[in-house]
Specification:
heterodimer, A: mainly alpha, MetI-like fold, two-stranded antiparallel ribbon, 19 helices, 2% strand, B: 295 residues, mainly alpha, 2 domains
Chain lengths: 447, 295
């Protein structure tokens, strides 16, 4: 059924109109009683051709070199000042080039679609079936084709503001765009040089990368599993039969979610400074003689961010697992109690396995979220403390390092490489855990 | 006398060990709750503190004042908070409308309809989700710049676009919820002659209040708490700053001494509406989540 309306058969078996639409988009639709649609498609083709002649071709032509005219300082006799002649801006050339490539891809898709449609209409006419009128097509947008109406705008948003920028940044990874040697306006392709720099164990950047990667994974493991287990225990303690004032306790913990994360994190940060509230209060109480180096010593800082992250994360876990915990069949518990299992055994033998089974997708999402957990690190420790000469601090994750490299340092190429590396790490983790999880094997297919 | 006896009898029914254990559980809970509530309590106290600066010797302020709040909403010279508040409110309302529509539309289509593009779309969303968000941030800035949206009040439009553009990828929770609504309800409506659009708006939506509210809530909150995209796109244009950038700036070295208590007041002001909304919507939040996991 699908094969019947492929582009190949459309060309082979198409009549004059259908074949004509290989060159004139929409001709097949126009000739097969779909005049409005055909005209619209043809208009799109015309505007595409105009676009290509006007700017598109010139832009593509510059893509391989990324421009070669440097910006030059020229003495302007008349005004008596130095002026800059407009040189090529490689960044814009690359950006517009990528956009043009996407426009071309879109027109190819349009071509395929209209070929298929033309042939479909032709076939319908030949079989004496009814070809939908424009009005009927419009109506179907609210019925059988509702997904087109609903999804066009969101997909367009994702395409223009997510995929295009992403492709652009991936291209960046293969250039020498960087503030180093001031390759900021005019830069070139340089293949895998930056990847080699990041992955090599010898250079400064490479060493920092492996360091940051190791810490990122350690952090993600601690942050995810500590939050998960402690949050679950908290939920169980609150939901115990003998606990009084369940709603009150829950309220206390939920209050911390209700305060925007960046506000509470910034408060924590000021409280944890050497002269911050916590140190002052502890000193006044006579418990310590010197301020504790919460965020200034590497090991302290690492433990601090993990602990503060518990403060942020446990209430979320508590909220989210409460409902699932109550769904655990109670006969499992009763059977275990009959066999004389204590609360610890019950937790590790029944509750935890059951929860892991149900919430594996949630855990994976949490793990990925923690690898990309920009807020906690950036707002709390800012990645610091940082060794002299390094761009990455002792608590920097790949994401925060990426942010520093691109926004603060303007090493776009290195930043892009780090981004791609983050992606690779995440995909590997997701693939391995997801494929091995029971919930994937059992209900992997969506419905 | 009899009342006491009844009390005693009640207590004796449970073994002593269990009662002691139960007591300690409550002590532990109280301690933990204190740890969680303390920072919030601290910031509320600070917002009423008269002494300036972030470094203090006592937990409780020496003198209380309401001036921090007044200053926050009247001092327009250095950090124009009222303006930032207005900016953020406008952006948040528009983003909330667009994003809610996008998320629900995509989630409904993926949950209820079957089309060729469906599976590829879900895979694409998953793959895109694995890239760090900031990676595309710089490129987004240049794209918006080439559209002329990074100057003056166009920045607001740019921020609205940035916040709502990726809404279509956050469909998982809503889709999980829609998946739990029985298909037979839709079918009944279709047999009665409804179009799918009518099913979507008149059948599914009324049944999905929790997830609609959840989506509205999260999308409204986004612009209030994001300062990274806002910073990159606003650059130095202080007129367009959002609340999050303003609060962030108050804690920078040059402002912190003078603005710390005002920051606390600002933090309270921003948190109150979000907190109220959240506490009311908590039930829906949990329902939305458990729907997703069950689905």
């Amino acid at each position: 059924m699908k094969e019947e309306y492929s582009v190949g058969t459309a060309i082979k078996k198409g009549d004059l109109w259908t074949r004509l639409s290989m060159i004139f988009f929409g001709a097949g639709l126009f000739g097969h009683k779909q005049k409005v649609k055909g005209a619209a498609v043809f208009l799109l083709e015309i505007s595409f051709i105009f676009f290509m002649i006007n700017t598109g071709i010139a832009r593509l032509a510059k893509m391989p070199s990324l421009g070669d005219t440097d910006q030059v300082e020229v003495w302007n006799e008349a005004k008596g000042v130095y002026e800059y002649t407009a040189g090529d801006n490689s960044l814009l050339i690359l950006l517009y080039g990528v956009v043009t490539l996407f426009v071309i891809a879109a027109i190819v898709v349009l071509w395929i679609l209209q070929m298929k449609q033309s042939y479909k209409c032709q076939k319908k006419l030949e079989d004496g079936q009814h070809v939908p009128t424009f009005k009927e097509d419009m109506k179907s947008l609210l019925d059988g084709n509702l997904h087109i109406t609903l999804m066009t705008l969101p997909v367009l948003g994702i395409l223009v503001f997510n995929i295009v920028p992403l492709v652009f940044m991936i291209c960046m990874a293969f250039t020498n765009y960087s503030k180093e040697d001031s390759h900021l306006t005019l830069f070139d392709w340089n293949g895998f040089t930056q990847f080699q720099r990041v992955l090599s164990m010898n250079g400064n950047i490479g060493q920092q990368f492996w360091h940051v990667l190791a810490w990122t994974i350690t952090w993600a493991i601690f942050a995810t599993f500590l939050n998960y287990i402690l949050g679950m225990i908290l939920a169980m303690v609150i939901n115990r039969k003998d606990t009084h004032g369940k709603a009150f306790w829950r309220f206390c913990f939920v209050l911390s979610i209700a305060v925007p994360q960046f506000v509470s994190l910034m408060i924590m940060r000021t409280m944890l400074q050497p002269e911050g509230a916590i140190n002052v209060l502890l000193t006044n109480a006579g418990l310590i003689s010197e301020p504790l180096p919460f965020l200034t010593n590497a090991t302290w800082a690492r433990i601090t961010v993990i602990v503060i992250n518990l403060w942020v994360g446990i209430p979320y876990t508590m909220l989210q697992v409460t409902g699932i915990l109550q769904n655990i069949p109670s006969d499992l518990y009763e059977a275990a109690k009959m066999d004389g299992a204590g609360p610890v055994t019950i937790f590790f033998k029944i509750t935890l396995p059951y929860m892991l089974f149900i919430t594996t997708p949630y855990l994976i999402a949490q793990f990925c979220g923690n690898i990309n957990n920009f807020n906690v690190i950036y707002l709390l420790s800012g990645g610091g403390p940082t060794n002299v000469g390094d761009t990455a601090g002792q608590t920097d994750l790949l994401v925060t390092w990426l942010y520093k490299l691109t926004i603060d340092q303007q090493y776009y190429n290195l930043g892009a490489v780090i981004g791609i590396m983050t992606f690779i790490v995440l995909s590997i983790i997701t693939l391995i855990t997801y494929r091995n999880s029971k919930s994937y094997k059992d209900e992997g297919a969506f419905n | 006398m009899t009342a006491m006896n009844v009390e005693k009898a009640k207590l004796n029914r449970r073994p002593l060990r269990k009662r002691v254990g139960n007591f300690f559980v409550h002590v532990l809970l109280a301690l933990l709750a204190a740890v969680w509530v303390l920072p919030i309590f601290w910031i509320i106290l600070t917002s009423f503190r008269a002494e300036p600066g972030s470094y203090v010797n006592t937990f409780f302020p020496k003198t209380y004042t309401f001036n921090n709040y007044i200053r926050l909403f009247t001092d327009r010279n250095v950090l124009n908070f009222p303006k930032m508040f207005g900016n953020t409110l406008i952006i948040a309302v528009v983003v909330c409308i667009i994003q809610t529509f996008f998320v629900l539309s995509v989630a409904y289509s993926l949950s209820r309809m079957r089309f060729k593009f469906r599976k590829p779309y879900m895979n694409m969303a998953m793959v895109l989700g694995l890239f760090p968000g900031f990676m595309s941030m710089v490129a987004q800035y240049y794209l918006l710049k080439s559209m002329g949206l990074t100057e003056g009040s166009w920045i607001r439009v740019a921020l609205i676009i940035v916040y709502s553009a990726s809404a279509g990828m956050g469909f998982q929770i809503a889709k999980g919820f829609f998946d739990t609504i029985p298909h037979s309800i839709d079918e009944a409506a279709i047999i009665d002659g409804s179009t799918l659009w009518q099913v979507f708006t008149k059948v599914t939506m009324p049944l999905s209040k929790p997830i609609v509210i959840y989506t509205v809530l999260t999308s409204f909150m986004g612009p209030w708490v994001d300062f990274i995209f806002a910073k990159v796109i606003c650059r130095a244009d202080a007129d367009q700053y959002t609340v999050a950038i303003g609060l962030w700036n108050m804690l920078q070295k040059e402002y912190i001494h003078e603005w710390y208590t005002a920051f606390a007041a600002g933090a309270v002001v921003v948190s109150i509406p979000i907190a109220i909304l959240f506490i009311f919507m908590q039930r829906y939040y949990v329902e939305g989540m458990s729907g997703a996991v069950k689905g």
